[in-house]
Structures are given as structure tokens and as C-alpha cells.
């Protein structure tokens, strides 16, 4: 398949939190469909490792870029937009994937944890979206923005109240931003993963083990068995949905958050 026949040929996609896990899998999917992929992450060492991995897989260096990005810092966001625009001429696709997760019973949630999770998962997502959308409007070619939500944004969980609240906010922002930006040809949609087998789940499992008095590994096993598909998600399970929402195949899809969770949640 040549580049011009691929779904994202001649597009540039920025993936925040793109150095590992779902973000890296989406970057790989974009490269396979002809796009340039920008790995935007707060961890420079992880960016370097991701770029080395992708180059080692045969992806062309001229369609790869790494940018250190702190979504909690407006100047960092603006610098990322400027750097990508200088390198590739503009941004066609934004995947707002950067997020953090913390757990505690409601009576133990700290103000610091509340502030940190909302700062990254909601404020950081929104102002990255705003900065990229402004650049898309100025360029005049429209674009696609994909916000990574979660099945946790569809319901409450006693031990995960703040994370659930942030992801519910992501779903709501996806709807509002989509309705406002479509007049500029910018399509905004979301993806809601379920439980995903990434390195972060080792930490999540350890927290559940602490709060629910379980052996290490038991919670991860149980949630995987509970998925109707029969297993936890894997990072590459999300690349196809991210390609679809970034491509012309979804040109009439606006303000939706697509559940990609093996059947865990139906809405």
C-alpha cells in the first residue's frame, strides 16, 4: 500500500502521553496509515525510547517527531503547537491521551490529589485542545480531535471517585467542544477504553490490593475475566478506533464517545 492510498496520508497527528501504552499504539497506527506522528509526552527519556522503537520497526524518520509536553503548562502547550507547525506545517489530528490515575476512598481523598487529577485529565486536556483548535482554525483546513475518556466516566466507583469525575468531564467537554468547533470543520469525538493491560495496571492492582485487602494480581485477574470479550484490552486494540475517528470514514461522526472496552459498558 502506498502512502497516498492510506487513510491518513499527508496528515500530521499529535498524541499526548504518546510515549507508551495506548498513546504509542495509536502513534504506530497513524504511521501505518501514512500520517506523521508526533510523540508528545512529559517524559523525555520515554519519548526517546518510543522514537527508537518506531524507527526500529521501519517507520520513516521524516514522519516521526518527539516533543516534551507538560499539559499543565500553557507555555509548554504553545511551544508544542509552534514546534509541530514549524516541522510539518500544521496539525491535522490531536489525540488527547495524557492522563493520570489515583485511587482512595472518598473519606481519604486529598485536596492535592483532587487538584492533580483535574489539572492533568481535564484542564490539561481542554487547554491542549483549545491551543490546537486555534491553530487548526487559523490554518483553515479543519481537523480531528480525539479525547481519551474511560468507562470510568460512564459510572461511579467508590475507590476511584476523582478519576471517574475527570473522565465524565472529558465526555462532557467532548460534546460541548464538538458542537462549537464543527463550524470550523473540526470534528471532536472521544474514545472510552475499558480495563487495559498496560504497565499502569500493576500500580492500579497494587492499590486495589491495599484498599480491598486482596493478594497482588487478584484484582487484575478478576477484572479481566469479567470483560465479556474474555480478556483485558491491549494498547493496540485502540489504534483502529483512533484511525477511524481521525479519518474521512468518520466525517459525519460528531460529539460521540466510542466505547472500546470488550463489551464492558453499553450506552
From TrEMBL:
Q: What is this protein called?
A: Sorbitol dehydrogenase
User: What are the entry keywords?
Assistant: Oxidoreductase
Q: Which domain of life is it from?
A: Bacteria
Q: Which GO terms describe its molecular function?
A: D-sorbitol dehydrogenase (acceptor) activity; oxidoreductase activity, acting on the CH-OH group of donors, NAD or NADP as acceptor
Give the EC number(s) listed in the UniProt record.
Answer: 1.1.99.21
Keyword Oxidoreductase, does the record have it? Answer: yes
Q: Which Pfam families match?
A: adh_short_C2
Name the protein family. Answer: Belongs to the short-chain dehydrogenases/reductases (SDR) family.
What lineage, starting at the top, does this entry show? Bacteria, Pseudomonadati, Pseudomonadota, Gammaproteobacteria, Oceanospirillales
The UniProt record lists the keyword Cell cycle: no
> Mind telling me which InterPro entries this protein's record contains?
NAD(P)-bd_dom_sf, SDR_fam
Amino acid at each position: 500500500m502506498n502512502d497516498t492510498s492510506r487513510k491518513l496520508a499527508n496528515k500530521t497527528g499529535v498524541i499526548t502521553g504518546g510515549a507508551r501504552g495506548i498513546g504509542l499504539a495509536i502513534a504506530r497506527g497513524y504511521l501505518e496509515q501514512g500520517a506523521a506522528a508526533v510523540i508528545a509526552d512529559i517524559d523525555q527519556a520515554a519519548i526517546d525510547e518510543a522514537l527508537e522503537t518506531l524507527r526500529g520497526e521501519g517507520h520513516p524518520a521524516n514522519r516521526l517527531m518527539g516533543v516534551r509536553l507538560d499539559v499543565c503548562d500553557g507555555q509548554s502547550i504553545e511551544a508544542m503547537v509552534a514546534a509541530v507547525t514549524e516541522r510539518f506545517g500544521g496539525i491535522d489530528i490531536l489525540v488527547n491521551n495524557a492522563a493520570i490515575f489515583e485511587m482512595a476512598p472518598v473519606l481519604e481523598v486529598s485536596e492535592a490529589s483532587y487538584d492533580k487529577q483535574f489539572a492533568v485529565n481535564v484542564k490539561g486536556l481542554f487547554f491542549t485542545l483549545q491551543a490546537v483548535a486555534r491553530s487548526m482554525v487559523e490554518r483553515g483546513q479543519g481537523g480531528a480531535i480525539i479525547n481519551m475518556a474511560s468507562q470510568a466516566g460512564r459510572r461511579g466507583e467508590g475507590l476511584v471517585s476523582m478519576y471517574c469525575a475527570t473522565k465524565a468531564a472529558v465526555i462532557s467537554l467532548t460534546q460541548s467542544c464538538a458542537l462549537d468547533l464543527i463550524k470550523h470543520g473540526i470534528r471532536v469525538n472521544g474514545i472510552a477504553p475499558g480495563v487495559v493491560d498496560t504497565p499502569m495496571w500493576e500500580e492500579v492492582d497494587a492499590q486495589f490490593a491495599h484498599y480491598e485487602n486482596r493478594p497482588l494480581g487478584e484484582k487484575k485477574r478478576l477484572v479481566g475475566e469479567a470483560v465479556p470479550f474474555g480478556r483485558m484490552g491491549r494498547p493496540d486494540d485502540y489504534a483502529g478506533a483512533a484511525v477511524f475517528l481521525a479519518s474521512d470514514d468518520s466525517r459525519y461522526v460528531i460529539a460521540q464517545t466510542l466505547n472500546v472496552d470488550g463489551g464492558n459498558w453499553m450506552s
